[in-house]
Design goal:
Radius of gyration: 23 Å
Structural class: alpha+beta
Oligomer: single chain
Helix content: 25-40%
Distance between the termini: 82 Å
Strand content: 25-35%
Largest sheet: 7 strands, antiparallel
Number of strands: 7
CATH architecture of the largest domain: 2-Layer Sandwich
CATH class of the largest domain: Alpha Beta
Strand order of the largest sheet: 1-2-3-7-6-5-4
C-alpha cells in the first residue's frame, strides 16, 4: 500500500512540476511545426545540395558583402554563388534604401518594373542582384532578394 502511495505522490509531484513548467514544454503544434520545417529543409538540402533555412536568424554562410534591407528575414536559400532571401518589411522605403545603396556601389540598373508586383535588377562585374516586392495587403511589404555571381 505504501508503495502505491509513493507512486501516486511521485506522479502528483510530476504533474505539478509539468503544470508549473508548462511554458518550458513546447506545444504539440510547435513540435509539429518544427518537425515539418526541419523535414522540408533536410529534403531540399539532400535533393539539391542547396542550403535551406526556414526562419533564419542570419544571412546564409558565404553571402557576399551586398546591401540588404532592414526587416524580418523570413527564409534563405544558398547554392554555390546564388542566394535567395525573403523578407517582410514595414514599407517600401527599405527597398528604396537597398536600391540606392546598390547604385552608390556602382551597380547599373538592367531592368525595372512597377505595378502590383515590382521588380528591380542591377549588376556590377561581380554580382547581379534582383529585388521583387509587393504589398501583402496587411501593411507589410514582402521582398524576394536574389543575388548571383555575374557570369564572366
Amino acid at each position: 500500500m505504501s508503495r502505491h502511495l509513493a507512486t501516486l505522490a511521485t506522479l502528483g509531484l510530476a504533474a505539478l512540476l509539468l503544470v508549473g513548467c508548462g511554458s518550458l514544454i513546447p506545444s504539440p503544434e510547435k513540435i509539429a511545426e518544427d518537425t515539418i520545417k526541419e523535414g522540408v529543409e533536410k529534403a531540399v538540402e539532400e535533393a539539391t545540395g542547396t542550403s535551406v533555412d526556414i526562419e533564419p536568424t542570419s544571412l546564409p554562410d558565404g553571402f557576399p558583402d551586398l546591401p540588404t534591407p532592414e526587416g524580418e528575414l523570413i527564409s534563405t536559400l544558398a547554392a554555390d554563388d546564388t542566394y535567395s532571401l525573403s523578407y517582410r518589411l514595414d514599407d517600401e522605403s527599405a527597398v528604396d534604401a537597398v536600391k540606392a545603396a546598390l547604385l552608390a556601389e556602382g551597380f547599373e540598373v538592367t531592368g525595372e518594373a512597377s505595378g502590383e508586383f515590382n521588380a528591380f535588377v542591377a549588376a556590377n562585374p561581380e554580382w547581379t542582384v534582383s529585388l521583387s516586392w509587393y504589398n501583402d495587403g496587411e501593411g507589410n511589404v514582402v521582398l524576394a532578394y536574389g543575388a548571383a555571381r555575374t557570369a564572366a
